[in-house]
Amino acid sequence: MAELITAIPNRTIFITLVFLSCVVSSSYAASDSDLLLKVKDDLEKDPNILTSWNTTTSPCNGDNSNWRGVRCYQGKVWGLKLENMGLKGFIDVDSLKELPYLRTISFMNNEFDGAWPEINKLTGLKSIFLSNNKFSGDIPADAFVGMQWLKKIHLSNNQFTGPIPPSIVMLPKLMELRLDGNKFIGPLPHLKQSRLKSFNVANNQLQGPIPITLSKIHASSFAGNEELCGAPLAACPSKKPSFASICMVAVVVCVALIVIGVTVFFILHRRRNREQSSILENPPSGHHNNKIGRKDPGSDSIRSTRSTGSTHSKKGDQMKLSFIRDDRERFDLQELLRASAEILGSGCYSSSYKASLVNGPKIVVKRFKQMNNVGKEEFQEHMRRIGRLNSPNLIPLVAYYYRKEEKLLVTDFVQNGSLAVRLHGHQALGEPSLDWPTRLKIVKGIARGLEHLYKDMPSLIAPHGNLKSSNVLLSETFEPLLTDYGLVPVTNQEMAKDIMVIYKSPEYLQHGRITKKSDVWSLGILILEILTGKFPATFLQQGKGSEVSLANWVYSVVPEEWNSSVFDKEMSDTENGEGEMDKLLRIALTCCEEDIEKRCDLKEVVEKILQVNERDVVDDIIDMK
Questions:
Q1: Stretch 480-484: mean pLDDT, rounded?
Q2: The whole model's pTM is what?
Q3: Are 506 and 594 in contact (CB under 8 A)?
Q4: How do strand 76-81 and strand 70-73 relate by DSSP bridges?
Q5: Which backbone phi and psi does 245 adopt, to 5 degrees?
Q6: Sign of dihedral through CA atoms 471, 476, 478, 482?
Q7: Closest listed residue to residue 495, CA positions, set 372, 401, 599, 601
Q8: Residue 475: alpha-carbon gap to chain centroid
Q9: d(CA 31, CA 97)
Q10: How far apart are the C-alpha atoms of 581 and 613, rounded to whole Å?
Q11: 3-state secondary structure (DSSP) of residue 587
């Protein structure tokens, strides 16, 4: 064989290569025809429509086209304008994506129906015109992810439902957005008006205040949405606050008081320590103790948690503390009665007190009133289950007290306080802002703790259920410790939706259900709070959880501006870490994916988080050279 090849004249080889090259080139040129004919085959149409689309001619001849509706430039297909043709059927996006120069598509004024086509596969598009058809259903949240060149979106007069996809705000070049005449619901996204030359969302079912970024657009662009309010429409009416709103406002007020009044706390700290304030105001009869502090009219206490029994044995049973762990110093109720108490926090769900035992450690006692629908045996078994958990990122349950009307949970006291205070009240505390390496350490610890809960409590739909910055404590080395975990099964279900974070998730707000991925959504929101330094409650919107708006706010900023506009400006030690910060922010956004099917599961999220480094890998390599 080698001898035969050697014997072939060089000239023959050259001619053969030229011929093959011509064949390949001819085949490549014909591929546009083949692709467009595939698109034609999936369309339902009048037989007399698109007759010029056939194998006898090429779609492009320079800048001209022999095929109806095809737009060409320098022999390449760059656009399709198939309007007013009565077309139905299926838009073959997979074939269209093989046209590398395709920049605009228009199927306006036809009869297309069904679900949203996967347009985001056409990443090079600059214009999409689908108005005046019969498309229906929700548009996926990520429908426009990756379409960085997209300038025009015209979807008017279809039957689209659900929220406006948040990925729209990620389009850096968007100039025209026409969504009027559909059935979109929910709030308007925070688009930047300075870019928009044409905007219309009239005649939908949108709700809530119009973002200030859109307030200067003419009122006609918002007409027909009865529940939209704010400039340029009428002012938003004040409504009677719901229980959930009251809770959220209470949280905001608490944080504001922490920021404003923490200096006063230090001034009064010594005096407060001297004042003996009992956790239980009145001990049961037979428990005479002159060391119980006098009542402080300005303080709260767990004063209703006391025995009402008449016999000694009945009192003894009712006042018994049940200890979970064997590695903690035991104390009885008398010692708890003698303890001085300091209020750490009080909200709709629980009240927290720091108790300083006379001859023992400092502990935290949490009082819950929203657990009175669960039986004693069920409650005790669940507490024992929680007590068996052992992780460096979970605050251990030390003991509990059961009474039908209320419950007490006892845990260790953590000196550094909560992540919420360190993020939003560090200036008043006289402490520096958390730097990037510390925040990354905290995120990784939270992820490990959540992973441990999922592993050891697999039967729970939401093993944590109330993951937020105020439920993350920080050790002296800033190792995060999750608290208030695993309490969904013992919390009154009729109240849980107004109390717990998972009930603010998109799947519950839209479909009334929680899933194994609801905690993942809570984790994503918490990571956004850690990276942005913004408190989620400041993003309240009518009818939506505030956390959804926080995620949408991040979506509204183009990635190129994350470093200057999204990340907490008080976060230090970020040099050579911007790439890894971006990576963690993107992980958080995948956790906040509204489509539950597309949201990552916890195992995948934890793996990605643990792979994030303090410094960009490329920079590390450069520094080593």
A1: 95
A2: 0.54
A3: yes
A4: antiparallel
A5: -65, -40
A6: negative
A7: 372
A8: 26
A9: 12
A10: 9
A11: helix
Cβ atoms of 161 and 184 closer than 8 Å? yes
Stretch 574-587: mean pLDDT: 90
Cis before 100? omega within 30: no
Based on the number of CB atoms within 10 Å of its own CB, is 541 exposed (0-12), middle (13-18) or buried (19 or more)? middle
How many Å apart are CA 190 and CA 422, to the nearest integer? Answer: 29
C-alpha distances out from residue 460 to 380, 393, 409, 486, 497, Å = 17, 19, 20, 8, 17
CA-wise closest residue to 189 among 572, 552, 586, 554: 552
- 404: its two tokens: 């039908």
Write the DSSP assignment of 218-232 as a string of letters.
Answer: -GGGGTT-TEEESTT
Average pLDDT on 429-449 reads: 92
Instruction: Determine the Cα–Cα distance for residues 218 and 233; give it in Å rounded to an integer.
Output: 9
DSSP structural state of residue 475: -
**608 sits in which H/E element:** helix 602-610
Residues 363 and 415: their CA atoms lie apart, in Å, by 10
Note whether 140 and 162 are within 8 A (CB): no
Residue with tokens 């916890």: 602
Name the CA dihedral angle for 415, 420, 421, 427, rounded to a multiple of 10 degrees: 130
pLDDT tens, residue by residue, 515-545: 999 999 999 999 999 999 988 765 544 334 4
